Amino acid sequence: ALTALRHLRSGLALWGACFCAAFEAEVLHTVEAGRLLPPGAVVAVGASGGKDSTVLAHVLRELAPPLDVSLRLVAVDEGIGGYRDAALAAVRRQAARWELPLTVVAYADLFGGWTMDAVARSTAGSGRSRACCTFCGVLRRRALEEGARLVGASHIVTGHNADDMAETVLMNFLRGDAGRLARGGGLGSPGEGGALASQKEVVLYAHFCRLDYFSEECVYAPEAFRGHARDLLKLLEAVRPSAVLDLVHSAERLALHPAAQPPPPGACSRCGALASRPLCQACALLDGLNHRHPKPVRALPPGGALLTTPVPGASSLSMVLRRAGL
Amino acid sequence: MARPGPARPGPRVTAAPAPRDVTSASPAPGAVRRHEREPRPWRVTAAPAPRDAERAGSCACVTAATKPRAALSPAAAVAAVMCQVGEDYVEPAPEAPPPRPGGRGQRCVKCKEEPPILVIRAGDAFCRFGPPGPRPSAVISLWSTVGANGPPCEQPCGLPADLPVGSAGRSCVRLLRLDWGAPPGALSPGLDAGVWCWYPRSEVGALAFWGCFKALYTHKFRAVLGKHRTIFPGEKVLLAWSGGPSSSSMVWQVVEVRPARSGAGVRAPRWAAVPCCGEAEAVVWPAGVCGVVGGGPLSGSGTLMPVPSPPQGLSRDSAKRLRFVPGVVYVDEGAACGRSVGDRAQTRAAMEQALRRTGFPWHAVALEQVLDLPPSVLCCAVREPPGGQGAYKAAVDTFLQKQQQQRWGAEAAGGSPAPALVEEPQGSPASAGAPPAAQTQALCRLFDSVRSLTAREELLQTLRSHLVLHVARAHGYSKVMTGESCTRLAIKLMTGLALGRGAFLAWDTVWHPRRLRRGVPDLGPGPPWGGAGPGTPGVLSRRLQGFSDERHGDVVVVRPMREHTLKEVAFHNRLCAVPVFFTPAVDTRAPEKASIHRLMEAFVLRLQAQFPSTISTVYRTSEKLLKAPRDVSTPRAPAPCCLLCCCALDVDTAGLCWARGGHGVQSSALTTPVLAGSATAFGAQAAHLSQTPAEPPAGPHGAAGVAGRCEREAPGACLMEQLCYSCRVTMKDVPSLDLLPPYILAEARLRSQRPGAAGDVHGGLLGGSSSEADAGVSGGDLPTGRQEAGAAPGVLHVYK
């Protein structure tokens, strides 16, 4: 067979089908080694229509029989005109093709009528337009949990690739966010094993499997601080191809002062979700919105999902599997 | 220089303004000063006593003073935004109109009285003339005819004629014009137009202007040293000097705060600047003391000091002096950069000249000397850190007693008080001359073979640190000071992150672990959740103690410049005329995308321009890092160290065993980052799995077929296994490991021949050397380097 690519980590030359098999084997190994998905689990796959979640759903569908899990697709409708509609159409096509049950939860239903467009309008004049992604990330995490609860899932799976994790590490360092760094290193900590597939591999897998995914950047994404980290990462990768892996390795091995470690999470007093403060971040943000003072509280997000929450649709991070906070 | 001057010694006063009566000369209110040299109101009212910010116990004033106290004018704010780190300023904030005196409450951040002129960043603005106190009575522009051929000094300056000033001996300056102040002779008797001796800088000139800025700058340096109590009095400290801005500034600080000795016949340690040809400013104090501030556009300058008694308030009492014994090391890296022999000789000559002027013992070594290093450099002679503050205080007391005894002894002998700290100012200049050509070629071959600039920089850094370590051990220094600024550390931190050195970021950037012993208060603003987290300081200190000096064992690297930003350093160097040398480095003229180092540097500086708090944020993050990797074993049983960077290995041993065990993994897979822990453990898996469905691709590496065994492979394989993750990735770009210096290969062979014995040896070392160190400390003696130097060979024997 013709060699199609050189495997990033082992340096082996592989061809398409072989690469796909290796990719699936890696995910399987990660899931099994970390005992992430016990047999009989009902798994909610966060599907955005983008390449990461598409690949994740595809891989998990392949692996569902050996793992003995059942899959549910959960998509979140943030209410971003002209962007999310097209992405949701892609998700619907995928669900129909794979014959997986799809549930769509909308911000507008969950959060008292707030859509991202409305949030953006509300924050636009206040000089806080960059905060869009802050709102979106927190709320989407919350929406995903709600969706998982709706479908009765015991686990939530989101698609994040190594590039996204590396970006997050860079970003948290540039922002000096030690609490999130402590948790960012914790992606490899017990109970949360991450399968690290680089962005390139994800795209290649999607290419070889001829997956249909939606690749456009969110309309609000260019304002995000993540853009800086992403640019840097691309440059770094050009200089040294293993830079992404090196960054992830750094993040895993980061040793932080105990005082910088986040406290054990509690429960939100209003909605009961995971929170490190009396009120979870989503509730706090919504409070701010409802008071017409959109003020993102600079604190720890519930459960740390924000850490790996990417700009909607615009690629994402390692495959993080975590227990649903039910 | 090219400036035409009168051949006769009598100078022309070209632009002397009208004599200004100091009691009535105050400009009309609202008058805008166009230039800093312009006349400014002379304060004759009773000024408050000069405050001394460096009084003991006022360390908090650093942070207090850096907080934005005075609101800045829009112009100043614009200047603050426009000023980017790393630039060298010819004139501070040249475009911004100077703030008006007394307007809108803008005040110097330190003295809080004068209008600010120099803006480091928003909130950090400094005045020009410093705290109230002795004021210069005139500012004179002068230019110099430098060199041995200059006209003789016309003034009886009273200083010894043998005072060395550079190579040219004493040189002279000619007063050219009087910019403002009194006419010659009116205010400062004895100072007249004419030819004056040009002397190296002293504290007089340095403190004349920018007193507030300089005081705070110096205070920061000394506060870092004093706060941590890392450096014991009388300890030998090696200053690593590269000639660049930060390290030059560090050396200058040490030179400057050394005990200043006055009086004829005593040689003060001096840092003479390169004599400048061109304009400079002289400051005339009422007492007749002159100092020169600033220099020509290209060079530094010296100090004009005809009267050796400094004005009041400038002398320093002994409590503020630095009490350690410094030495300077300079590493000539010309071979790594591919410079020609002639260029290197020139650089070496200039550097040695500068080193000689410091008055400290100095060591100029060439990078080629790494080829002669013994393998013992790579051994960590673990020494127990001397106990807490009690030990420090005891050491201080011993030191003071010793000093007192020496002083008495000297007085009894009738001589001038002998310098207690300096054994011999010019002692043992270790200039080896040009290294042998064969060694240069060997080193060039090594660096030329490295495939990427990133790896080249890393390799150079490693070899350099080994060399400095060796010099320190050989000459009995127990501390090494490097001049990494806050900016540089932030860049280094991000670079280390991208290079996979996450576990060692604290080792690479943090000052010293004992800083963390104080626990939470040192972490800046407290955590928003209030509590101290799971680790209480007591537990923490106990855990940290064993780790503190583990990296190089007996030699500790400290970074006293870590509170200074590069911008402050640049200003300081400019204002104090600290000579800075430029030598081409590995990355000189390399494009931005050539290496991760360059890339990260450009990125951080660019981001800093957009978000002015970037560097300080990253830097603060580094303070929250621990030196102990998360899951490395207890201090009593140290993990095996990386051969190159001497950090505990951060590679999963499980992954290693798997790779070593030989599941049909090809040898190429061994040298890939498969070795890395959880992030890459499944990479090996993939390599393994991929062979099942497809036939193993035949390649150059395919024939090996067997997992690399040390005995069969080239020295590279067993070397690779002893490296940390980051060093392995770096070494992947070094195709022929045989070219590495012999001490690395020898040590690698030693360690691999005794698999598993490394831990035992280290354990043995731990006991042996710690007892020696304990004897050194508890005996009331100062932990001088001789003992450690003696200990290191012993360590070696155990190892062999």
Report on this model:
The complex is a heterodimer of chains A (326) and B (800). In chain A, the strands form 3 sheets. A 6-stranded mixed beta sheet of chain A has the order 5-4-3-6-10-7. In chain A, strands 1-2 form a two-stranded antiparallel sheet. A two-stranded antiparallel ribbon of chain A has the order 8-9. Chain A has one domain (11-323): Rossmann fold, CATH 3.40.50.620. The longest helix of chain A is centred in the middle third of the chain and has 20 residues, at 132-151. Chain A contains 12 helices and 10 strands. In chain A, a hairpin with a 6-residue loop joins strand 8 and strand 9. In chain A, helix 7 runs antiparallel to helix 8. Chain A is of the alpha/beta class and 326 residues long. Chain B has 800 residues and is α/β, with parallel strands linked by helices. Chain B is 36% helix and 8% strand. Chain B has helices spanning 61-66, 74-82, 203-208, 211-228, 245-256, 334-337, 341-358, 389-413, 437-449, 453-474, 486-498, 505-509, 514-517, 537-545, 566-575, 596-610, 614-623, 653-661, 667-670, 677-689, 715-720, 725-731, 742-753, 757-778, 785-799; strands at residues 118-121, 124-126, 138-145, 171-181, 195-198, 236-241, 279-284, 290-293, 325-332, 362-366, 430-431, 479-481, 556-558. In chain B, the strands form 3 sheets. A 6-stranded parallel beta sheet of chain B has the order 11-10-9-6-12-13, with helices on both faces. Chain B has a 5-stranded antiparallel beta sheet with strand order 5-4-3-7-8. In chain B, strands 1-2 form a two-stranded antiparallel ribbon. Chain B is globular. The chains are: A alpha/beta (326), B alpha/beta (800).
SSE blueprint and pairings:
The complex is a heterodimer of chains A (326) and B (800).
Chain A lengths: L4 E2 L6 E2 L1 H19 L7 E5 L4 H17 L2 E8 L6 H15 L3 E5 H4 L5 H9 L7 H20 L3 E4 L3 H14 L2 H8 L8 E2 L3 H10 L17 H14 L3 H11 L12 E2 L6 E2 L5 H10 L28 E5 L3
Parallel strand pairs in A: 3-4, 3-6, 4-5
Antiparallel strand pairs in A: 1-2, 6-10, 7-10, 8-9
Chain B lengths: L60 H6 L7 H9 L35 E4 L2 E3 L11 E8 L25 E11 L13 E4 L4 H6 L2 H18 L7 E6 L3 H12 L22 E6 L5 E4 L31 E8 L1 H4 L3 H18 L3 E5 L22 H25 L16 E2 L5 H13 L3 H22 L4 E3 L4 H13 L6 H5 L4 H4 L19 H9 L10 E3 L7 H10 L20 H15 L3 H10 L29 H9 L5 H4 L6 H13 L25 H6 L4 H7 L10 H12 L3 H22 L6 H15 L1
Parallel strand pairs in B: 6-9, 6-12, 9-10, 10-11, 12-13
Antiparallel strand pairs in B: 1-2, 3-4, 3-7, 4-5, 7-8
Helix pairs in contact in B: 5-15, 10-22, 11-16, 11-17, 18-20, 24-25
Protein name (chain A): Cytoplasmic tRNA 2-thiolation protein 1
Pfam family, one (chain A): ATP_bind_3
Keywords (chain A): ATP-binding, Cytoplasm, Nucleotide-binding, RNA-binding, Signal, Transferase, tRNA processing, tRNA-binding
